[in-house]
Every structure is written in C-alpha cells, then in structure tokens.
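Lecture 7 notes: from sequence to structure.

We start with a single chain of 93 residues. Read the sequence below before looking at the structure.
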Amino acid sequence: MVDHGKTKRQEIHLLNRRLLEVSGVLNVDSFDSEEFLLETELGFLNVKGQNLHIKNLNLEQGFVAIEGTINSLNYLDGAGPDKSKGFLGKLFK
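Now the structure, written as tokens:
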C-alpha cells in the first residue's frame, strides 16, 4: 500500500437540523445567530440558520458543534469566476 501523505478528512453530523458537529475545522472566521463561516481542511464551509450558537469548540482537535435551526450548509470553493472577489465577496453576492 502506498502512503501519499496526510489525507484530509472531514466529518459532518447533523441531528434533526438542531445540532451540527463538524470535524476538520481550522478556524471560525465569523459567526452570528444566523450564519457561521468555518475554515476547514476541505475549504470554507458556510452554515446558515436561525438562533445559531456554538455549543462546543476545540480548534486543537479541529472540532466545532453548533446548535440552533440549521437551514443550509454550503462550501465556498475557490474555483470559478468569483475567485478574485475573496470570501466576503462571495458571501454578499
């Protein structure tokens, strides 16, 4: 078996749209009660919902748990024509 270095891994668990657990988190870039922007090993993850708050955060282990009503999860890829806009430009299209 050939080992090609460290494999990026991420797990996302969503329980009844009320509890979101994400592994592979590098940083929490921004958050409020309706939106979180998480920098993960696989790209930026945008979480939208209502009454969102952090239940558990451990950046050393790369883990975050968010409670509230989860409405959407969206990866913000750096590919395509919006690449030059930056991450804030993508959020406020």
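The chain has one helix and six strands. Keep this in mind for problem set 3.
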